[in-house]
Amino acid sequence: MQIKPTALAAVLLATASLAQANTTHESFSDVTGSASFDGWNQLNRSGLGCADSTCSTAKLVAGITANVAGSGDAVFKRDSGDHYPAGFGLYGGNSVLSFIDTTLVGNLGTLVFQGIVNDFSGAGFGLTLSYNGGTQALAASNVSSVLTGGVADYYRYTFDLSGLGAVNSYSLSLNAGFSQMLAFQVDQVATAPVPEPSTYALMAGGLGLVGWLARRRKVTQA
């Protein structure tokens, strides 16, 4: 079977469009069931509206609200270290940075973090989660990455919060060595509420009524 060039071009274009559907970064995937998200990109001097590193660093230390269209009000900030918004992205040696959000969806069950972090040191970085103002420093339940040799290294961390009870705030702590950071996104996925016992009783009663009506209809038709 021979594929015509025009058809092949259309397929490639469609594939490229799908790959770039996420508005935060083309490497990010849309999280299934996401009820709310916060995204940060253009983390450089120009993107922050600064002419020099002093201005942009001050903004990073004070906290940068999610700046991608459709985002919530989570804040990203540098707690310590020397990363600063350079000409292309956040650049520096050792730093501790945090993502903080106090406006969460109800029945929050999962947090999904995606980031483009080019790790030049080769030592990797750590990401932990604390919630409700605590210092739990929980590790992710699932971690995956796609490494590109320091061009746009992609990391995805999934945190399972379903067994923690009500979570009304979170703080993600990112410990990074010598690296460059380009974009981040945090998605909130709600867990479907468990029906009350009375709901199960009503469902059972309804199913029983449907069955009784079906049997009665058969007898009437006979």
TrEMBL record:
All residue ranges annotated as the Ice-binding protein C-terminal domain in the record: 193-217
Highest rank taxon of the organism: Bacteria
Signal peptide stretch: 1-21
NCBIfam families xref list: PEP_CTERM
Pfam families membership: PEP-CTERM (PF07589)
Keywords associated with the record: Signal
Protein name: PEP-CTERM sorting domain-containing protein
